[in-house]
Amino acid sequence: MRTLQVIRILLILLALLLFGAGAVAAAENLLFVRAGNIWIANIDGSGERQITSSGQDESPALSPDGKTIVYHSGWDEKTGYGNLYSISIRGGTPKKMEFPGFQGAEHASFAPDGKHIVFVGLSNIRKEGKGDSAMTYATMSICVADLGRGKVRKIIRTPNALLDTGYIYSNPSFSPDGSSIAYQDEGSDVSGGFSVISLAGKKLFHYPSRAWSSVPYWRPLFSFDGKQILCYSPATSESIKDAVYLVDIAKGTKRKVTEGTSSAFIKGGKAIVFERWNDKWTEKATPDLWVLDLTPGATPKKIILDASQPAG
After folding, report:
1. Residues 25, 308, 186, CA angle at the centre, nearest 5°?
2. Are 310 and 268 in contact (CB under 8 A)?
3. Could you say which residues of the chain have pLDDT below 50?
4. Cα-only R_g, the chain
5. Residue 125 CA neighbour count, 13 Å, CB half
6. pTM here?
7. Lowest CB count within 10 Å: 129, 135, 217, 242, which one?
8. Enclosing domain of residue 245
9. CATH code for the domain in which residue 255 is found
10. How many Å apart are CA 247 and CA 251, to the nearest integer?
11. Tell me, what's the pLDDT at 187?
């Protein structure tokens, strides 16, 4: 019996030496949204499994250890805005994340340490005017929350932001070293570049270099080496194609990667997953998910039907 135990230990050690800790790690997962619910699958599209069931869930984010999902859900009857929830990748009962002082919280993303998230917080929400002329205002903030201690720190904030014309901050995400945050400026169909700021709120980079652009560049995500930003430009007319770009931070230049929207890194930054829409400009529009390896000559591959908002 003792001999068998020794053999098992030696085999485990050999696997670690030959293949590293990843040899016994779980397979990488891919999150996506279908019919207002969060789903999970393997990165090749196999093993689809539904996680949530409210029909109001969106914008999923996966923790660095691959065990927890944070997402936006629900619509408060008083404010008209939802909140963030967390749930295990195994499923179960979602847990509402409480942020005192905020009436709404959206667009969450994990820090590299898995102990913090960055999100867009809404406070002081109010309406001015009546009927069709009513306008909604709020204080919008990009915030970092300590998940263990429950404390929230506002990195940047803008009071009296007009929400009806689009959010002034969206889709924040951390750099690989956790020292800076990229976020989407504006949120209308015809504008919005992205910015990179320090944790003190100092602006470090903006793309495009001019403050305002007629071309949108949305959902900025740092590459795994921190030198590039993955983003996408949704088509603003039928004569234009959706496009995914990589932006070089040092040079301030962009390179088109493929046609698509809502791009995200997978495979340790060696590939991306993204949406492509069928019949985009019709009422029958539906998205599918595609994968593209970031190697010269690689071609996109469709992996999941009727799916959107991917996150790796």
Report:
1. 110
2. no
3. 1, 4, 6-26
4. 21
5. 19
6. 0.88
7. 129
8. 28-311
9. 2.120.10.30
10. 8
11. 60
